[in-house]
Amino acid sequence: MENPFDSHPDSGSYINLKERVFQKVQAANINDQIFLVVQNTYEQALAGENIFLSRPERKRLFSQILELVLSDMINKLDSRS
Question: What CA–CA distance (Å, rounded) separates 36 from 43?
Answer without folding.
Answer: 10
